[in-house]
């Protein structure tokens, strides 16, 4: 583990990580999704093994904005996704973030 720079290891899936959950802790992945408000269809996603959500939604929203070729994209995310350093950059690139 030290040679690979890893702090955790799973014998069943080497990519999963121990993450805090409502029930305590669980071994798994962190998923971010972007959903179209009209159709309720998932239009973008990111699966990672980062235990924190900070800043991850920005990459999902940026990809959706580019894929659908829209000038301005409005998002809603919870406080876990908030990354203050991203607000100014998002705004100038046409992403309006609403923290709920």
Structure description:
The chain has helices spanning 56-67, 84-92, and strands spanning 17-21, 24-28, 30-35, 42-48, 73-77, 95-99. With 100 residues, it is α+β, with helices and mostly antiparallel strands. The chain has one domain. The strands form three sheets. It has a two-stranded antiparallel sheet. It is elongated, with a radius of gyration of 16 Å.
Q: How large a portion of the residues is in β-strands, by DSSP E?
A: 25-35%
Taken in chain order, the helices and strands follow as EEEEHEHE
Largest beta-sheet details:
2 strands, antiparallel
Question: Into how many domains do the coordinates divide?
Answer: 1
The count of helical stretches stands at: 2
Strand order of the largest sheet: 1-2
Overall pLDDT confidence: 83
Distance between the termini: 39 Å
SS-derived structural category: alpha+beta
Q: What overall geometry do the principal axes of the alpha carbons give?
A: elongated
> What's the β-strand tally?
6
What share of the residues lie within helices? 10-25%
Q: How large is the radius of gyration?
A: 16 Å
What low-confidence regions span 5 or more consecutive residues with pLDDT below 50?
A: none
Any key phrases for this structure?
two-stranded antiparallel ribbon; 2 helices; 6 strands; 33% strand
Task: Write a short abstract of this structure.
The protein is an alpha+beta fold and 100 residues long. It is built from 2 helices and 6 strands, in the order ββββαβαβ.
